[in-house]
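Hi support team,

I've been running sequence recovery on a batch of backbones for a student project. Most finish fine, but this one hangs at about 90% for roughly twenty minutes before it completes. I'm not sure whether the input is malformed or the queue is just slow. I've pasted the structure tokens below so you can try to reproduce it. Let me know if you need the job ID as well.

Thanks,
M.K.
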């Protein structure tokens, strides 16, 4: 009886619409006009969460490439919107109704217009196949089904009923995730071919993102943070995945006599684009952190790995035996002495001044902390090791970092400007090791330069060719 009720509820809810790609029937609970309205509303929320990258030239370029592909898609009549977000995240995504977003974070690792087209084509594939609408409809149906069914079967709200509801919801949601990502890549490859790009650019992008993920996973492990991963099939399948090769390979049947790569055009468009953190997030140069809004700077050891997270700075020693962290407490309670003694918890406290600022040093068995007050805010710089012996070995380095904290000087404000990509012509003497020696990217400079130029892990600059560096 209960299963019959659920079945009747789902039958009552199901609405069908023709899939723009396959021509078959899809389960959906909204019209195209509702889809467009949903996309507009979601777009407003995205732009509250993210800042739009403030370069009209770059926005226009990405829009040009996106519109070119969209016109060759299964839904060319939609009004598509392509937006570059001012984010370091390695990401691109689409909303129902033709809203497509790409971050400057992912664009830094691309090297041609064809690769940009591959990312946008994949996202357009989600829009044309109405993946977002279908997923929204399935989730909505599961929720409505539970509500209606509970009227007829009160026990459906019990644990057993919830499991039954989850089963129904799972049945409705089956086929989402990997299958839809694979379909989006298949469609993206098809749209690339129709637009005179090489469909294999999708495979190239996946290879680039896999290399970025491998390096970032290694750095994240050292720095005690979560690695940054690209969503979707790009993150879950290697570039030699059989099903992916087959999906992209189908697009090769559409002959593209002279596919457009657009290496130089893409580099020209991204020349001057911000790399890594923007000024509002603080900037790392040669392991020195500059924050213009807060008006502070601090120097971390040159051979340590440093990473700027949203809520803290972390640095890891080369062998991983010591770690530094700086956090901001915007509303510290009590005087600096009271705060320091609360932190000490049995350790020792030394009151002093650091570069003219009221400060305290707190020593415990395996850590040394610097507490500094500035503008009614507290900065806590913590050096931590695995043992007392390692703290002794690293104490001078940790203390030097704490003592380097100071108010940003007038001649340092220029250094608080964000790092940017710069395009140059490589000569016979250039190597990534040589370029890294003068790069502001610190210890990982050589690896990052290889990554952003698609030469990771051991490629070389080609004399006379264009390459990206960071300044």
């Amino acid at each position: 009886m209960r299963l019959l009720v659920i079945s009747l509820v789902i039958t009552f809810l199901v609405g069908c619409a023709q899939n723009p790609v396959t021509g078959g029937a899809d389960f959906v609970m909204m019209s195209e006009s509702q889809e467009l309205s949903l996309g507009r509303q979601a777009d407003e929320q995205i732009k509250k969460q993210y800042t739009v990258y403030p370069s009209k030239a770059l926005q226009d370029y990405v829009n040009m490439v996106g519109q070119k592909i969209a016109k060759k898609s299964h839904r060319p009549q939609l009004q598509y919107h392509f937006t570059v977000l001012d984010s370091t995240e390695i990401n691109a995504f689409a909303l129902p109704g033709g809203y497509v977003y790409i971050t400057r974070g992912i664009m830094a690792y691309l090297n041609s217009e064809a690769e940009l087209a591959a990312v946008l084509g994949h996202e357009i594939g989600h829009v044309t196949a109405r993946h977002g609408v279908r997923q929204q409809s399935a989730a909505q149906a599961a929720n409505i089904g539970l509500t209606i069914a509970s009227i007829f079967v009160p026990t459906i709200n019990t644990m057993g009923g919830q499991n039954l509801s989850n089963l129904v919801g799972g049945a409705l949601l089956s086929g989402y995730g990997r299958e839809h990502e694979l379909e989006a890549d298949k469609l993206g490859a098809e749209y690339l071919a129709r637009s005179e790009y090489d469909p294999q650019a999708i495979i190239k992008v996946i290879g680039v993102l896999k290399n970025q993920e491998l390096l970032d996973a290694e750095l994240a492990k050292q720095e005690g943070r979560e690695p940054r991963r690209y969503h979707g099939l790009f993150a879950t399948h290697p570039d030699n995945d059989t099903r992916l090769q087959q999906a992209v390979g189908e697009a090769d049947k559409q002959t593209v006599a002279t596919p457009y790569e657009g290496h130089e055009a893409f580099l020209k468009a991204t020349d001057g684009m911000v790399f890594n953190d923007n000024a509002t997030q603080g900037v790392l140069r040669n392991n020195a952190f500059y924050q213009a809004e807060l008006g502070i700077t601090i120097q971390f050891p040159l051979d340590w790995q440093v990473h700027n997270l949203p809520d803290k700075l972390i640095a890891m020693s080369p062998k991983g035996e010591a770690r530094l962290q700086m956090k901001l407490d915007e509303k510290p309670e009590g005087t600096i002495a009271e705060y320091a003694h609360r932190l000490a918890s049995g350790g020792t406290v030394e009151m002093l001044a650091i570069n003219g600022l009221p400060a305290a040093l707190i020593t415990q068995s395996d850590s040394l902390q610097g507490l500094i007050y500035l503008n009614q805010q507290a900065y806590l710089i913590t050096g931590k090791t695995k043992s007392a012996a390692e703290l002794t070995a690293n104490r001078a380095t940790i203390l030097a970092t704490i003592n380097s904290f100071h108010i940003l000087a007038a001649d340092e404000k220029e250094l608080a400007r964000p790092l940017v990509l710069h395009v140059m012509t490589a000569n016979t003497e250039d190597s990534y090791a040589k370029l890294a020696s003068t790069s502001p990217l610190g210890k990982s400079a050589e690896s990052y330069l290889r990554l952003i130029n698609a030469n990771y892990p051991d490629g070389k600059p080609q004399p006379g060719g264009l390459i990206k560096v960071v300044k």
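--
Follow-up from support: It reproduced on our side and the slowdown came from queue contention, not your input. The chain has 16 helices and 19 strands. No action needed from you.
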